[in-house]
Design goal:
The chain is an all-alpha fold. Helix content is about 70%, strand content about 0%.
Length: about 450
């Protein structure tokens, strides 16, 4: 397994040109220099064991982008270098990514026809550019990976398998092509577990030349576990067996997400492994920070969140998780500042509004601020109980007039929801007790779930 770990680290962390660098050079009229950069990546991939998959990695990092924002750069590259195989390969690769974005993550039968039509248009554009690229230079392995994905999306299984056959004829030990072939051979794409196992077995005949192929050994078991439709305990028990072999970052992420909500220790372990090889998985980092808070590692949690926010200040969940860590440290001012920052990203996010309202009402007792949050919740989410619960809590605790009207509204609109029956009963009891006593009786606090 050691050689696979070393190869995976070399693959994941090798230096490749950023898209920003590519964009800068092309728009400065230096497309020929971009071609020289990518030619160097190809030569390294072909000749240096420590550079396995370098061209594939560069394409994935720079052009696996479903945004139309990169199209002007790629079109300018093709115009400037009409005989560049790299320019057409990058353009086609990005068209496939755009097609995936158009399709979305749902089942195809639930995808709007307009999105399906847009996807198919992008795939035709991709096919044209990708075919032209390998006509110019058939050694460009990212082209075959993109064609396999295009086949899985819409161009057909035969198209995908033909691309895999041609790609492996050129580079039989290429891990990216094997990865994509494994993907398209999954049962949900028309393949089978047997087909996946056959890909794994064939790939291992080249593992001595490219140890990255050993990562495929866990794929079938991870696929079976993550699609088992079984008890969570059964699924989680399958992952340690799968990871007797080296697991990819993606497979570790699947296992970590599976453990979420049922086994935080296991979740933290798998997410840590996923992040070790792919530090850019922001959702995994946020969830691991929540685990750190649960383990009372508050300083560590804050440090991790701060590092993430330095890279991604737009990540609302990073602001929220750091706020939760500050709350756990009884640092209300910093928690408030982070929740406010989260609302700058999404002003109507209900869990953030609820959490900020709870902070004002139940920690700092800033009733006016809490009342403003309750009003905002009711305005943005009138059919959700949280704003009304927060309002009732303020009216009962401050106290403030109007509790009877709030309880009447809550009773009329939410009393039929079984999950809210405890809240309804408590609010009625508060009114009954207030009619007999001026004592303070706390209501059940609304809870914001992460």
């Amino acid at each position: 397994m050691h050689d696979a770990v070393v190869a995976y680290c070399q693959y994941r962390f090798q230096a490749v040109p950023s898209f920003a660098r590519v964009q800068q050079l092309i728009h400065a009229g230096k497309a020929a220099e971009v071609d020289r950069l990518f030619s160097g990546l190809l030569q390294a991939q072909l000749t240096r064991p420590t550079a396995r998959g370098r061209l594939d990695r560069a394409f994935y990092q720079d052009f696996n982008n479903g945004s139309a924002a990169i199209r002007p750069t790629l079109d300018a590259w093709k115009r400037s270098s009409p005989s560049s195989a790299f320019a057409y390969a990058a353009s086609g690769y990005a068209y496939v990514a755009m097609a995936g974005y158009e399709r979305g993550n749902g089942y195809i039968e639930n995808t709007p026809q307009g999105s399906v039509k847009a996807m198919d248009q992008r795939l035709q554009q991709a096919d044209t550019d990708l075919r032209h690229a390998i006509a110019l230079d058939p050694r460009l392995t990212p082209v075959y990976s993109a064609m396999i994905k295009a086949g899985g999306l819409s161009l057909g299984r035969d198209y995908a398998l033909d691309a895999a056959r041609r790609g492996l004829a050129v580079a039989p030990d290429n891990s990216s092509i094997h990865d994509m072939l494994m993907w398209v051979d999954q049962p949900k794409w028309g393949g089978s577990l047997l087909a996946m196992q056959q890909v794994t077995t064939e790939a291992q005949t080249h593992a001595a030349e490219n140890p990255l192929l050993r990562l495929l050994l866990s794929d079938v078991m991870v696929y079976e576990a993550s699609n088992c439709e079984c008890e969570k305990s059964v699924e989680l028990a399958a992952y340690p067996v799968a990871f007797d072999h080296m697991g990819s970052s993606g497979n570790m992420l699947l296992a970590g997400n599976a453990a979420h909500g049922s086994n935080q220790e296991l979740e933290a372990v798998y997410l840590s492994e996923a992040l070790r090889f792919d530090p850019a998985i922001e959702d995994a980092r946020v969830n691991r920070i929540y685990d750190l808070i649960e383990f009372d590692e508050l300083a560590w949690a804050i440090t991790e969140a701060t590092r993430l926010l330095k890279r991604s200040s737009h990540n609302m969940y990073a602001w929220k998780v750091r706020a939760e860590a500050y709350e756990a440290m009884n640092d209300a001012p910093h928690a408030e500042a982070d929740l406010r920052a989260a609302l700058e990203v999404d002003p109507v996010d209900m869990p953030t509004l609820v959490e900020l309202g709870n902070l004002y009402v139940n920690v700092t007792h800033e009733w006016s601020n809490g009342w403003a949050i309750a009003d905002e919740l009711i305005k943005q989410h009138p059919h959700n109980p949280y704003g009304w619960l927060l309002r009732a809590h303020i009216q009962e605790r401050q106290p403030r007039a109007g509790l009877r009207d709030t309880v009447a509204y809550f009773d009329a609109n939410f009393s039929n929801a079984p999950s809210l029956q405890k809240d309804v009963d408590e609010m009625r009891a508060v009114l009954d007790r207030q009619s007999r006593s001026d004592g303070e009786i706390p209501l059940v606090e609304p809870v914001a779930h992460r």
